Amino acid sequence: MATDGTIAIDVRDAVKRYGDFTALKRISLSIRDNEFFTLLGPSGCGKTTLLRMIAGFEDVTEGAIFLFGDEIETLPPHKRPINTVFQDYALFPHMTVIDNVGFGLEMRGKSKSDARKRAGEVLEMVQLSQFANRKPAQLSGGQQQRVALARALAPQPKVLLLDEPLSALDLKLRKAMQIELKHLQRDTGITFIFVTHDQEEALTMSDRIAVMSSGELQQLGDARDIYERPRNMFVADFIGDTNLLSVTVNRVEGQSATCRLASGHQIACDAVEGIAPGAYVHMSIRPERLYLSEPGDGYLSGTVLENIFVGTDITTIVEISPDLRLTVRTSNSDRGAQGIFAPGTAVAVHLEQGAGRLLAD
Amino acid sequence: MAGGGTAGGGPRTDTYAPVRLWLLLPAWVSLTILVLAPVSMMLVYSFLTKEFRGGVIWEFSLSAYDQFFCNRGLFGDEPCSIEWTYLLIFWRSIWQAGAATLLSLAIGFPTAYFIATRPARQRALWVFLITIPYWVNLLIRTVSMKFLLRDQGPLNDALLGLGILSEPLSIVNTNLAVQLGLFYSYLPFMVLPIYAAVERYNFSLSEAAADLYAPRWVILRRIVIPAVKPGIVAGCILVFVPSLGSFLAPDLLGGAKTFMIGSLIEEQFKGNAGNWPFGAAASMILLTMVLILLLIFARQQARAGNG
Ligand SMILES: Nc1ncnc2c1ncn2[C@@H]1O[C@H](COP(=O)(O)OP(=O)(O)O)[C@@H](O)[C@H]1O
Ligand SMILES: [Mg+2]
């Protein structure tokens, strides 16, 4: 996404404590203008807390938040040009759809008729024009979700916050909304901060992702960074499926390194800053970067335990040694040439160039 | 009720049909004894002729209503012109009850809101505290109120002692005293329904409104109050209706100028000077007014439910 590098939201050393419990442990992040930014992490890691601090619903225990350079953490929510799409939508039940959407505009001083006019345009954008005069209770969940979106977009905020907006929708609708949200972000040019615990959703939608766990920022980067170059065990494990192996680093030469498995096998991989020879660390290998062949010429040899059919792919579990099992994923279209190795057959497991990723912790 | 057993239209039989009538009996009996019988009696009495030392003569007469609405001069032989005496008392009662209701709303709403926004475990305690004074008999509470408001009472002593006043404030025997008395008598009836409504209110609506640039008072006016309106209306009715017919507070705290409909009715049935048919007629008129009020309320609730 085209961003000119301006920082929309700058969170500096933000700490949030509830009594003795620290929900956010000194988080710093910069979110660029015009960016689709995602906060990703398991439930309870503090995503909502961070979002609510940006919106102004929670005090910041320590630290500061800047919006385009202005310090905002002490402003009340109604003075921040930031809007939120709430997880439970929070639509005003006694108002019609169009009045819901026009509410923010009216509060910003637009006349009732101007507000309705603009609200009508935004409703058109989310394809809800024909429901303008209904009450929220007369809409389906997906429609309510779009009203919430329209309501938050109507006042043209500088930043839009979305707290797991799609989690209540069924899979098909969710996929459609993911695309629609992405388009809306591109068309409006508004900075989106999107919260989700669904890593797949995060990977498909985001320009950049901040992975969080237990109140801490684990890694910040674009989808490829996070998927292909996870920084630590948590990120490698949380994003997609992976094989985690314990290795000892043998040699580091410039950009490349060699590691040894407990079984004695050698694996070449990229060097990672801060990991020196002799270190005993974890290595992450994505299942789709492994492949199988007839035994004999293999790098690692093992026995097929199980084949799991998952639609487009087939997942094969191979036992290398009693304490090492690898998951190998083969696309169903590739499999034609290879055939399926039945459980019990001996196979060789190959590693793509650069598939092993060393993890700092 | 009777059709309940065959609602399915099939061969299902209502096993409980014989028992059901018996089970409903207590409800019917109490409704009959406590509501239907007294109201019918009042209705009948209001159309009878008065006996001079209280009681009635069983002879149809419209004179009770005539006395209420018609002024027929000193000797009762002139054509009917509007009788203002009782209408004025009615009007005063409405006014007093309305003022007491507004006062209860002004104090009761913030109180209810406060309680409903405490942590869940504290709420029951607050509700309990609110209701404690109401374990004491209303008469005693009203007399205590008079004691509090007296010229030499604690309220005036405190205000004088603090130098806020230089002369005691005469509250007793004024409209204000009656309003305060009514307010104090029925405050929980305002607090409890509003509390129940605010407790059910989804506070993320307030957050959403704040997020959309609404300052606090706009949130209260445009979001919170419409959402808890049924509770407010219920509270107002529960305070207004008993205030309207109340006689303890006006009798004890008020004077001749604060005479209310409840006292008027009470007088008609007390001692030998009373006029039972007239008291019954005044009660029926009061009852009709209250029923109209409740009907308007029910209408509004139904409309809110549809919307
Ligand atoms: N008001 C609160 N009081 C105490 N603890 C809270 C409060 N709000 C959130 N928490 C705690 O803070 C942590 C982070 O919560 P939250 O930000 O909602 O997580 P997420 O949105 O990532 O699921 C959780 O452990 C939660 O229990
Ligand atoms: Mg959350």
UniProtKB/TrEMBL annotation, chain A:
Keyword ATP-binding included in the entry's annotation: yes
Organism in which the protein naturally occurs: Lutimaribacter saemankumensis
Organism phylogeny: Bacteria, Pseudomonadati, Pseudomonadota, Alphaproteobacteria, Rhodobacterales
Recorded superkingdom: Bacteria
InterPro entries attached to this UniProt entry: AAA+_ATPase, ABC_SmlMolc_Importer, ABC_transporter-like_ATP-bd, ABC_transporter-like_CS, Mo/tungstate-bd_C_term_dom, P-loop_NTPase, PotA-like, PotA_ATP-bd
UniProt-recorded name of the protein: Spermidine/putrescine import ATP-binding protein PotA
Functional summary from the UniProt entry: Part of the ABC transporter complex PotABCD involved in spermidine/putrescine import. Responsible for energy coupling to the transport system.
Keyword terms of this UniProt record: ATP-binding, Cell membrane, Membrane, Nucleotide-binding, Translocase, Transport
Catalytic activity reported: ATP + H2O + polyamine-[polyamine-binding protein]Side 1 = ADP + phosphate + polyamineSide 2 + [polyamine-binding protein]Side 1
Annotated ranges, domain ABC transporter: 9-239
EC number: 7.6.2.11
UniProt key word Translocase: yes
Entry's family note: Belongs to the ABC transporter superfamily. Spermidine/putrescine importer (TC 3.A.1.11.1) family.
GO CC annotations, alphabetized: ATP-binding cassette (ABC) transporter complex
NCBIfam families per the UniProt record, alphabetical: potA (TIGR01187)
From TrEMBL, chain B:
Source organism of this protein record: Lutimaribacter saemankumensis
Chain segments annotated as transmembrane: 21-48, 94-116, 123-140, 176-198, 219-241, 276-298
Chief subcellular location: membrane
Residue stretches making up the ABC transmembrane type-1 domain: 90-297
Pfam family for this entry, one: BPD_transp_1
Lineage: Bacteria, Pseudomonadati, Pseudomonadota, Alphaproteobacteria, Rhodobacterales
Keywords assigned: Cell membrane, Membrane, Transmembrane, Transmembrane helix, Transport
Membrane topology of this protein: Multi-pass membrane protein
Cellular localisation: Cell membrane
UniProt superkingdom: Bacteria
Protein name: Spermidine/putrescine transport system permease protein
Family membership noted in the UniProt record: Belongs to the binding-protein-dependent transport system permease family. CysTW subfamily.
Record has ATP-binding as a keyword: no
SUPFAM superfamilies the record matches: MetI-like
Hydrolase recorded as keyword: no
Gene Ontology cellular component list: plasma membrane
Biological process terms in GO annotation: transmembrane transport
